[in-house]
TrEMBL record:
Boundaries of every SDH C-terminal domain copy: 253-276
UniProt keywords, alphabetically: Amino-acid biosynthesis, Aromatic amino acid biosynthesis, Oxidoreductase
Lineage of the organism: Bacteria, Pseudomonadati, Pseudomonadota, Alphaproteobacteria, Sphingomonadales
Location of the Shikimate dehydrogenase substrate binding N-terminal domain: 7-89
SUPFAM superfamilies the record matches: Aminoacid dehydrogenase-like, N-terminal domain (SSF53223), NAD(P)-binding Rossmann-fold domains (SSF51735)
Record's protein name: Shikimate dehydrogenase
CDD domains on file: NAD_bind_Shikimate_DH
Record Pfam families: SDH_C, Shikimate_dh_N
Known pathway: Metabolic intermediate biosynthesis; chorismate biosynthesis; chorismate from D-erythrose 4-phosphate and phosphoenolpyruvate: step 4/7
Length: 287
């Protein structure tokens, strides 16, 4: 019996998770498999019922649109999953119950910490502007908080969902705005780029193949802005191309994908992810 894990969602054919986990299995000298399985919200209950009866199943990563749908099916929730009411890692525990964790939080925090801030003598604060209102957006806010950021704005089309994200993360409702309103914050209406800085995180499917680009003009943002796109298919979205052309600092979807996958790998296969091979893994993922 070969142990296996998988990624579930709809769509899921684009997922790079199988490549990541198979790479780590090979580098670690472990036997195991990692698969894709297309699962819709309507299929989720049947899927979990079948997998729980399979002794070879070690769990699954959960992608859109199931990150909130999976919550009622979990017997136990980790702290981040409970706080955000969303998760991306589901696995069986010894007593047969399912545990849900949210490792997206770590996937966001890790590259933000690595880039760090560019301080200015008259710096007031850095606003993290999160685009989206689903499970990925919730993870983005909490992950940025874990990286040391404390001021947020939420931009989305569904205001009620955006207000839920704001409430969960302690963001004032006044900081929840329509998607079309996104732009840099100016203190007292002044064009002082050194008093307020920005991190912009796209936590929506915008930019994916067949989806429109993120509707934001980055030319008015300061030169220290961090542009973070959680989309990884394609890796170079219009949002990131615009940021690179302006010389802004960029975090792409692979940075987050690898970061959130590492704790999943250990949960599935009982071995730490061999992160010392990250440069080679990125080469494989972008080949």
């Amino acid at each position: 019996m070969i142990a296996y894990a998988e990624v579930i969602g709809d769509p899921v054919a684009h997922s790079r998770s199988p490549t990541i986990h198979r790479f780590w299995l090979d580098k670690s000298g472990l036997q195991g498999e990692y698969r894709r399985e297309q699962v819709t919200p309507a299929d989720l209950s049947r899927y979990l019922h079948e997998r729980k009866r399979d002794p070879a199943w070690r769990g699954c990563n959960v992608t859109m649109p199931l990150k909130t749908e999976v919550v009622p099916h979990a017997g136990r929730l980790g702290a981040e999953a409970q706080r955000l009411h969303a998760g991306n890692l589901l696995f069986p525990e010894g007593d047969g119950s399912l545990r849900l964790e949210n490792t997206d939080v770590q996937g966001v925090a890790e590259p933000l910490r690595r880039l760090g801030r560019l301080p200015h003598a008259d710096q007031v604060t850095t606003y993290v502007q999160v685009i989206g209102s689903g499970g990925a957006a919730r993870g983005a806010v909490l992950g940025a908080g874990l990286a040391g950021y404390g001021d947020f704005q939420i931009f989305c089309r569904n205001r009620s969902a955006g207000l839920e994200v704001a409430a969960m993360t302690g963001t004032p409702s006044a900081n929840c705005h329509p998607l079309e309103a996104i732009g840099p914050i100016r203190p007292n209406g002044e064009l002082d780029l050194h008093r307020l800085s920005h991190v912009i995180i796209n936590a929506t499917p915008m930019g994916m193949a067949g989806q429109p680009d993120v509707p934001v003009d980055l030319t008015s943002y300061g030169p220290d802005t961090i542009v973070f796109d959680m989309v990884y298919s394609p890796l170079e979205t219009g949002f990131l191309r615009q940021a690179r052309a302006l010389g802004l600092r960029v975090i792409d979807g692979l940075d987050m994908l690898i970061g959130q996958a590492a704790p999943s790998f250990e949960a599935f296969f009982g071995h730490p992810a061999p992160r010392e091979h990250d440069p080679e893994l990125r080469e494989r993922l972008t080949a």
